[in-house]
Amino acid sequence: MLLAGPGALWLLAFFLVPILILLGYSFMPRGTYGGVEPGITLEHYRRFLDPLYLGILRRTAWLSLLCTLVCLLLAYPTAYVIARSGRWRNLLLFLAVLPFWTSSLVRTYAMIFLLRDSGLINRILMDLGLIVAPLRLLYTEGAVLAGLVYGALPFMILPIYASLEKLDPALLEAAEVLGARPWTRFVRIVWPLTLPGVAAGSLLVFVPSLGSFVVPDLLGGARQMMIGNLIQNQFGPSRNWPFGSAVAFAVMALVLIAMLAVLRVNRPPAGQGGAA
Amino acid sequence: MTARRVPYAVTVTAVLTYVLLHLPLLVLIAFSFNRSRFGVQWGGFTLDWYARLAARPDILRALRLSLVAGVASALLATTMGTLAALALARHLPRARRRAEALLYLPIVTPEIVAGVSLLVLFSWLGIGLGMATIVMAHTAFSIPFVTVVVLARLQGTDRALEEAAMSLGADELSTFRRVTLPLLMPGVLAGALLAFTLSFDDFVTTFFVAGVGSTTLPLAVYSMVRKSVEPTINALSALLVIVTTVAVYFADRLARGSTRA
Q1: CB contact under 8 A, A244 and B13
Q2: pTM of the model
């Protein structure tokens, strides 16, 4: 019991307490130089209802959703191939996870290097004679989406792989013996049984995307602002810490909602056959 | 799963995914050896950009700060994370589920929220930003990762070995030192390497808690990227990628060891 003490205290002091202070700040009137004044107010949450900020919230939710879908489309087949790759499995898993440990900043810079006007993609397209002037790839919604997907893919591959790996092959054999075609086997057996992995992966992709800041900052430019940039702005140049705290807390609320949704999907079904 | 044929479209998508995951960084590294300064024309092999990095005092200082922060936070996080894993595995099976939720919450929380909340905490307490705050913050986000890795290793070890040591007269402390710890060591080392990597590569949290004087390598890359795209950034990024790849490779081998179920 005592052993867990130092780690638990550290997380309490440098994770939970700061978030509670942030919550407190979000209800306090704004002071000078980013500080707060004593008192209670809802003005920061009310301010968030401004169409300007709601627009940023909508773009963030939309891009995160799109990112989750693209990741799912790419990651499911990938996890499927890894699960069946036999002796290559360890190597493929390692290669799937490696980008996660690489600095988000370096990964984003790599995207700039590929996408900018004089980047590799434009260069190749021009050399092939497909275009005469460079395409505008950087500072677009597509660039932000690509950056988000690039960073988030490992989070989708791993949980889906884990649930595919647990799948009992006997179920598939039984279905085959009984005459189920490959597509039917997938829809009726594989997909429902791997749904917990899909849910966990979607959470792990959707949530960090909501809070992303480096990707829209470097790949999106001023017109592709996401909530992360808004938060950074309030704690940086705008020096409005309480408003920044309120926005950060709104993100935290979305995180908790997403987590609860996934916990519902992952709960073992009470009856039978309610998995899908 | 059985070895039925994988549909063609599935294989193609998987290959595409791996290309998407690795091509950008490979291109980045390749062009860090490119002689030509502008654009993406190949001008021949050179190590010039690395030499220029090594000649910049600000980069060397950033490297030193990153190493110090990485080692310090890895030591702290590994110690506390390992102890927490031991407590969870051996002494608190009931509290386990709740504790695991608490472990995963920091992992899923967007880093920017954790970053600004630490900034608010430090300013509230009047703690000046610098190396100390960087180490405190990095330790905090590394602890859950260490605990998860060590916990996985603990589940693979045989409790009977400890019981044997105890019944042969070893007290609790020497059982821990001579039996438990050696069995755990691969997991602990893997956790330490991952904690170091997380700290060494971290940008978002560091951005908020570093203050003016403590520029780590990722912060240095950021200010360079904002100014222009040039081959020295490729060289610096390549170094970060290589350090990370080596650390994660060894962590992966250690963690796989004998726990692979």
Answers
A1: no
A2: 0.87
